[in-house]
Design goal:
- By secondary structure, the chain is α/β, with parallel strands linked by helices.
- The protein has one domain (2-283): Rossmann fold (3-Layer(aba) Sandwich).
- The chain is built from eleven helices and nine strands.
- It has a seven-stranded parallel β-sheet, with helices on both faces.
- Helix 1 (10-21) links the parallel strand 1 and strand 2.
- Bound molecules: NADP nicotinamide-adenine-dinucleotide phosphate.
- NADP nicotinamide-adenine-dinucleotide phosphate (NAP) binds at residues 6, 8-12, 30-31, 36, 63-66, 68-69, 71, 98, 100, 133, 135-136, 139.
């Protein structure tokens, strides 16, 4: 049995599907099980740190968001410590932690917090695998409303050269990390995960524009404005600082492409264009359909 935290999230939902597809038994954590909308084949529990959640579990996928890292750092670290103790006492033998490539920059506060979680996982005496992805493709969903309503992409650091990664590829690596046997070279490793190409936010905007057939304007947002928007949307100050630091650094130091996704899954990572094709509906204005038999021109709402 595999326990997946953050199971309704960008990576977790994909991971649950991929594990089910190979016939694995999955238990998922969601704070509101009835609203999780996961397969009937999944046992959904409201918390990870309980006997019903941990019974029979061999390996756990841990998402830092789901242990509350972005709500209260101190509490999240305490919770992780308690959780790891409980997991060990229930016979869990492996933890796969969704970390971040920002751990490679010790001046980045997001990286520092993730690194502390990594250390806790590494020092518990269980098998561990640390996944260190860079920027996710799905972050561009934050642009969707402006794209639909104004045909504009507003983002800071339009020339930051990053290697955004598809959540499905992160999930595919996570599935391998949960399923592989103890002698596999993934165990005790910390692969950095990237997409297959270096792209700037302006490049991403062009790719979205092409996919939806709508011309989009890229509007570079001042870093202070972007910072304020992140904090107003609920990000802690350190998380907003860390994200903007990551972008700023990528202007002068392009993010390197990692071979890890292909090496681990045997399949090259998906391109951003591929991700956009599958998510294009999120960026398109909804088209209003006429009721069958109607000839009236639809009126504006
Ligand atoms: N986005 C990026 O570019 C990026 C890059 C590198 C690393 N990361 C790391 O990846 C992780 C995010 O992964 P993700 O995008 O798959 O997760 P996500 O979609 O943001 O969240 C996963 C789930 O966690 C639960 N959750 C959210 N806030 C919570 C809270 N305060 N307490 C408890 N549960 C909460 C929610 O599930 P329920 O509502 O069902 O409980 C949510 O669906 C973070 O640790 C982040 O640092 C992200």
């Amino acid at each position: 049995m595999y326990l997946i935290t953050g199971a309704t999230g960008h990576v977790g939902r994909e991971l649950v599907e991929q594990l089910l597809a190979v016939g694995a038994d999955v238990r998922a954590v969601s704070r509101r099980p009835p609203a999780a909308h996961l397969s009937d084949r999944v046992d959904v529990v409201p918390t990870a740190d309980s006997a019903p959640a941990l019974r029979g579990v061999s390996a756990v996928f841990l998402n830092a968001t789901a242990i509350g890292l972005f709500t209260d750092v101190g509490t999240a670290k305490d919770r992780l410590q308690t959780f790891l103790g409980q997991a060990a006492s229930h016979g869990v033998h492996r933890i796969v932690l969704l970390s971040s490539s920002s751990v490679l920059d010790d001046t980045n506060p997001v990286g520092r917090h993730h690194r502390e979680l990594e250390r806790q996982v590494q020092h518990r005496g269980l098998e561990w695998i640390l996944l260190r992805p860079g920027i996710f493709n799905c972050n561009t969903l934050d642009w969707a409303e402006d794209i639909r309503s104004r045909g504009v992409v507003c983002a800071p650091f339009g020339s930051a050269r990053m290697a955004p990664v598809d959540e499905r590829d992160i999930a595919a690596v996570a599935a391998q990390a949960l399923l592989c046997d103890s002698t596999h070279r993934l165990v005790g490793s910390a692969p950095v995960l990237s997409g297959p190409e270096v792209l700037t936010p302006a490049d991403q905007a062009r790719i979205i524009s092409k996919a939806i057939g709508v011309s989009l304007r890229f509007e570079e947002l001042a870093p202070e404005k972007a910072h304020r928007a992140l904090v107003e949307a609920g990000a802690p100050l350190w998380a907003a600082d860390g994200l903007l630091r990551y972008y700023a650094k990528a202007v002068t130091h392009p993010v390197a492409i990692s071979p890890a996704v292909a090496q681990i899954t045997g399949t090259p990572p998906r391109t951003f264009a591929n991700w956009v094709m599958d998510r294009a509906a999120a960026f398109r204005r909804p088209t209003r359909t006429r009721p069958a038999g109607s000839t009236a021109t639809p009126t504006a709402p």
